[in-house]
Amino acid sequence: MTGLRDARLALEAALGSERVYQPGEAFTTPCIRIHPGNPWLGPSALAQGNRTQRWEVWAVAGKGDARANYEALETLVSTITDALDVLPGWSGIVWDRPNPTDMGGTQYLAVRGTIETRKGV
């Protein structure tokens, strides 16, 4: 296995792979989607200029921005944060602001988190 694949599998295992979807897969909300970050690999100030992998972890609630979707999103973000905070060799996850986000032509209430690791680089 490559370091990139190992990192993705570690994220899936920490998050519970039955509710984690990869880019291009059909999904049911609420769910978690994992994407390579941008940049995916590169030097990081968090690692004293050493190369790291960056991954995007998306928390996706229901369609639109109804109050119930915000509550579901808050719960999902807390669950993801708790699961990833104990993952050895990874940074803490940094969350953007939640927004209605287009995913496959449909707007979902979602938020992107970014996490880094030096494992396998």
Summarize the structure.
This protein is of the alpha+beta class. The chain is about 25% helix and about 40% strand.
Count of spatially separate domains: 1
> Could you name the ranges where pLDDT drops below 50 across 5 or more consecutive residues?
none
Give me the count of strands.
6
* Arithmetic mean pLDDT: 89
Task: Note the run of SSEs as H and E.
Answer: HEEEHEEE
CATH superfamily: Phage minor tail protein U
How many individual helices? 2
- DSSP helix fraction: 25-40%
Oligomer: single chain
Per the CATH scheme, the topology name is Alpha-Beta Plaits
The CATH architecture term is 2-Layer Sandwich
Give me the Rg, rounded: 14 Å
Question: Which CATH class applies here?
Answer: Alpha Beta
Broad structural category = alpha+beta
Terminus-to-terminus distance: 13 Å
Task: Tell the overall outline.
Answer: elongated
